[in-house]
Amino acid sequence: MDRGGCQMSGGGGGGDRSGPEQSGMITLEDLESFSEDQLSDSGNGSLEEEAETMEEDDGRLLHYWQDVARGHQVEVAQDMAEPIQQLTSNNHGRSNREHVPFTLLARKEKCGELLFERRQYEKGHWACIRMREDTYEQSICYGFMRIMKYICQQNSVGDYLGMTLPIVTVVRTNENQAVLSHEVTVAYFLPAEHQAQPPQPTDSEIIIEIWPTTTVYARPFSGPTNEVTIIDQISTMAELLDSTDMCLHDSFIVAGYTNPAHSQRQNEIWFLERP
């Protein structure tokens, strides 16, 4: 697997599109479809009973992920049980998540509907991994699970790092923006408390990058993210902009904010302004 630069300024070439259309990808947010009642017991039993309950919860969550993954021809290994359980427990204990900070430069609306925003994201540390699997969906899923392990203890501080939103995926197309490459870069913004000294990943293929200050044109859209919808959103955004000459033509970012199991998932497509 190619390990290259993962910066927001993008890069890389296009690739062939193959595989059936999918309805979504596994993400950290998938875990929130479990309620507190599903993930915990009454807490009145003995330590042995509580330990057994925790093991049952681990197995139940793992089986859920495995069931979702099979729809995308992805295998979820047994060693994902612990990070999945840990992430779920931390998510249910936090009311707010840190968002990647930006400065709003401009926004365009029509009849009260937001068409797109122009934003500036400051320089910061991102953990990213470049993946190229047989299908686009496999690249997304396997890359995200590797990032998830980094967030959940597989790092130099040995602790849960905290969740930030959005989780972004750098996608690449051919020159006419009609075919999406199976090669993607999945990236996670380090929380503010870790920006000065980013914990190092134990996975050698996860790279801590300093992404430069970048200006993006961001358009919201809802629903699933797959090869068809991403190409459609790129086409729509290109039509809305007066000109795309100021943007990169073969690298874009898909930003995910909410659970893909929701019927109205919140996403954005980002066009990257040339440096």
Question: Count the strands?
Answer: 11
Largest sheet: 9 strands, antiparallel
Percent in helix: 25-40%
Rg over CA atoms, rounded to whole Å, is: 19 Å
Mean pLDDT: 78
pLDDT < 50 runs, ≥5 residues: 10-54
The coarse overall form would be globular
Instruction: Report, as a whole number of angstroms, the end-to-end distance.
Output: 28 Å
In short:
With 275 residues, the protein is α+β, with helices and mostly antiparallel strands. The chain has helices spanning 36-39, 47-70, 81-92, 136-151, 192-195, 227-240; strands at 98-99, 103-110, 113-121, 124-132, 164-165, 167-172, 183-189, 207-211, 214-222, 247-256, 266-273. The protein is built from six helices and eleven strands.
What does this structure look like?
This protein has 275 residues and is α+β, with helices and mostly antiparallel strands. The chain has helices spanning 36-39, 47-70, 81-92, 136-151, 192-195, 227-240, and strands spanning 98-99, 103-110, 113-121, 124-132, 164-165, 167-172, 183-189, 207-211, 214-222, 247-256, 266-273. A nine-stranded antiparallel β-sheet has the order 2-3-9-11-10-6-7-4-8. Helix 2 crosses helix 3.
